[in-house]
Design goal:
Two copies of one chain form a homodimer.
Chain A lengths: L3 H19 L8 H11 L6 H12 L8 H18 L9 E2 L2 E2 L1 H5 L1 H19 L10 H12 L4 H11 L6 H26 L4 H28 L2 H4 L5 H4 L5 H5 L1 H17 L9 H11 L4
Antiparallel strand pairs in A: 1-2
Helix pairs in contact in A: 1-4, 2-6, 3-4, 3-9, 3-15, 4-6, 4-9, 7-9, 8-9, 9-10, 10-14, 14-15
Chain lengths: 294, 294
Amino acid sequence: MDDLKPWLKATQKQVDSALGRFLPRESAAPKTIHKAMRYSIFAGGKRLRPILTLAAAEACGGELENALAPACATEIMHTYSLVHDDLPCMDDDDLRRGRPTSHKVFGEGMAVLTGDALLTQVFIVIAQTPETKRYTVKDYLEEIAVTGGSKKLIGGQVLDLEGEGKELSKRELVKIHENKTAALLTCSVRLGAMTANATPAKLDALTTFGYNLGLAFQVIDDILDVTQTTEMLGKTAGKDEAVDKSTYPAILGLEASRKEAARLTKKALKSLEVFGKKGQRLEQIARYLLEREY
Amino acid sequence: MDDLKPWLKATQKQVDSALGRFLPRESAAPKTIHKAMRYSIFAGGKRLRPILTLAAAEACGGELENALAPACATEIMHTYSLVHDDLPCMDDDDLRRGRPTSHKVFGEGMAVLTGDALLTQVFIVIAQTPETKRYTVKDYLEEIAVTGGSKKLIGGQVLDLEGEGKELSKRELVKIHENKTAALLTCSVRLGAMTANATPAKLDALTTFGYNLGLAFQVIDDILDVTQTTEMLGKTAGKDEAVDKSTYPAILGLEASRKEAARLTKKALKSLEVFGKKGQRLEQIARYLLEREY
């Protein structure tokens, strides 16, 4: 298998190009909303979720082309959640991916509508996913709608909002990140696998993979918030502590948090055994995420 | 055909009961968001959109039972848009359906999340619509997602937001209401018809019906905002003028607005001819809406 870095770069480019096709043109009326949707989507994200979707499709022997729609859908869902989370009435963030946040550029009302429009676009895009013998658009729809819903993605944000200023237990913190981060990463790999007509056993393995990778990813994110600068992060550093948010380093300490991330990554990697050599790309991605500067 | 009023009452009851089933229980975690979702849904709306869905299914010879999921989906979509429109950064409304608005009760951040959760729930619910020979979940999904998207429902709200404080032409005003109101009413009848396996010709007739009824409905809404009290409306009266919003009465005058509503209703009724006697319920509803106190 080729090196990860060039593959990542090439795949990000493919994802960006597909995102361009799956979003309304900036010239479509009303222009403001389409400009704002594209502003947040093309702000230089890592495209982790679509990359996982494509790598999972590959691991299950599918065509990358067939996984582009759900890959973009997961990225659009992630972006909508950031636009709304950054609002003054939520996390009140001025900076995201190194640029002013949506409400700073377009105003609060427009940022609410931009998030809404992106969320709705998720479903316009998911409807375009090719069906397989085992999976129909109904299956893709249920997968992503339940993941984005009040019991998972939004539920996690609710717990996060309610937990601010309180001292959370590790268990409570895990609950937030299961919903906020791990659920969408799990959905990303599952959708990719579904477009490859994966067996239920492989879907199960990817559920375990996504869950553990998602938690590991969040632990590392929390560590980076403590150890990196705003410039390195592209978002306000030290923010968690400033707003008195419970984080892994705050609860466990830095060293134990690093160990926790390694433990979770190991569990994620173990779940890939069923894919044999075909799982190498997912394995490379998991290792790469763990070895981010922190 | 029996009288409209008892049918409306019985149907509203059925819709409310279905909405109760299609929303997460209040006891499901996190409780706050599910309480807030139900607070806005069960605030005593007229259930116009689901009623249109069910009446359209009936007009096409379908089973009411099969149309309950999309009926609820349209009502949930309508409610999400109200929750977000009422936010301080949008229309800043304190009162809706006679009760304090969501952000007044649950706070702004939670109201944003509640709208998001309702919007996502639309798609969880639409996935549960029974398929027919002609129409699959993919068709239902595309219908409602495109209607809710940046070029229709949200696009209309963008134009509305951008038009505040400006003097709009009649044409610009119609554009807003085509998107904000008529699109979702059209989608409501079309989805009902689809669950009844309606022919494309019947879908076309209902598209004309929904469009004209939607515009008529909005003209009447604008008139009521001028002529009725806050108590009668259940939302702040005189609000349009107070925020310098362009309305039909402001542009055309009251008398011409009334004539416009009658003209549009007539066009809507004409489109029902293809349904013969089966279209009577839709006709009754259209007449009833026109004859609201105004």
